[in-house]
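One example given next:
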Amino acid sequence: MPTPPDLSSKAGALKKVAGVGALVGVLLLGVLLFVRPTTVSTGPDQVALHYSDGAFTPRRFKDCVSPSTRAWDGPGDKHYSYPSSQRNYVFGEEGDRGHVTFVTKDGIEMSVDGVAAFMLNTDCDVLRKFHDLIGNRYAAYMDTADGNGSQGWLRMLSVYISRPLETAIDRAGQNYSYTELYTDPNVKAQWETEVLEQMPDLVGRQIDGEEAFFTDFAITLQKPVPPESVKAALVAQQESVAKAKAKEAEAAAQVKAAQAQVEVEKAEAAKIAERIAVLGREGYLKQYAIDHGLNPYQPTTGGLITDSGQ
């Protein structure tokens, strides 16, 4: 049965309305995607850089966001967070990189673990230059809200902190022998100080411009370790020295004991001489015998009375 003309026209009109509504919905959704605001929330040890980057706006720096701040900005804007507290770059087992090796003045390769601490300069103008020159290139900004650095941050540090650190450790290490660094804590402390003194200049040489992107360096170095073969030889040498010193001490003690005995004997001889001077030699001998439980008055045949005439 054919559809009445009035119903057919109404159905067509409804389809057109539905199509227009769907189109309007898509357009509204698209508008919302473009116009919804962006937000940033910095932690107590974070700052952020705010850049405009909307569909209809050029990418341009806007402002810096202070620590512990939540802000809403224009649609499509970008925020890049960086640490404002001290950062540690750990080298060694389970660190951000492996141990650092260097060569001493006597040609021995040693290895050392430790920590290089520093601050990222978060002055707004300086941080913006750091981001434009370095941070954005390595994606070194924070990608989590827990304050940990991103993989890009570690890649950046491997260039701008790790390499100067290797140079500083190696240069300072060439001033000392391996035995001095391994056995003398005062030498090790001086070496650590020399490494720290070189860090700002070595880091600054890799950065274009006059800005100091990294500041407030601190270095903590563990006891440097020579190769196992060298360490074993050093231990054997130390044991040999210890044994030699023990023998020297024993010999010195024996000499002192002998000297003391001589002094005792001299004193005894002087005492005997004085008694002989008082008692005479025979008197001293008799007194000596009495003192030692002997009888100095033994009978003699010359003292016996015989009667040969009877």
Summary: The chain is about 50% helix and 20% strand.
